[in-house]
Amino acid sequence: MKPLALFIFFVLFGTIAFAQNCVNFSTPGDTVVIDTTNHQRMLLGYCNRQSFQDTSFSWWFNSVYDMYEMDSTTALNFKDKLDNVKITIVMGTWCSDSHKLVPKFLRVLDYLKFSKDSTTIIAVGRNLKGRENETEGMNIKSVPTIIFYKNASEIGRIIESPKETIEKDIYNILKG
């Protein structure tokens, strides 16, 4: 009986160890996989702000978020225009542009006390696809892509980096 128990132990242990390297659910709904290009962990699919507190991502997310000095005057100019706006952020945790833009963008939203329920974050792989078909129909060609919706219609995007500043780009999208 001991050889059978040892066999089962090693099969289960091996499966669990392998799964930890390939897929790990950090917080409910998050999928962390290993990027085959740089062999680092990356998020795929829908995620939330807590996802970025995983040590694989917190080193870049928290430092950029904390150091960003926003243009609060411009931000306050569009605060009232955020009513009924929904925002979808499509990003890659492997992408340097996402590392630079997403934490800053989220800091602006936090400053304005924008509802976290009105923000959707979708992490994609290098093929610009998430875990399933989360970005289908969004016409994602580069990341990050931040899409603004009002009354279920797209009203604008920020793609890869702002044209002016994050705050001025948001203001220009919302004033239209």
Q: Can you describe what's shown?
A:
By secondary structure, the chain is α+β, with helices and mostly antiparallel strands. It has one domain (35-175): Glutaredoxin, CATH 3.40.30. The protein has 5 helices and 6 strands, in the order H-E-E-H-H-E-H-E-E-E-H. The chain has a 6-stranded mixed β-sheet, with helices on one face. Helix 2 (55-67) packs across helix 4 and helix 3 (72-78) packs parallel to helix 5. It is globular. Mean pLDDT is 87; it is low at 6-28.
Keywords:
alpha+beta, Glutaredoxin, 38% helix, six-stranded mixed beta sheet, 176 residues
Ordered list of secondary-structure elements with their pairings:
Layout: H1 2-22, E1 31-34, E2 41-47, H2 55-67, H3 72-78, E3 85-91, H4 96-111, E4 119-123, E5 145-150, E6 153-159, H5 166-175
Helix pairs in contact: 2-4, 3-5
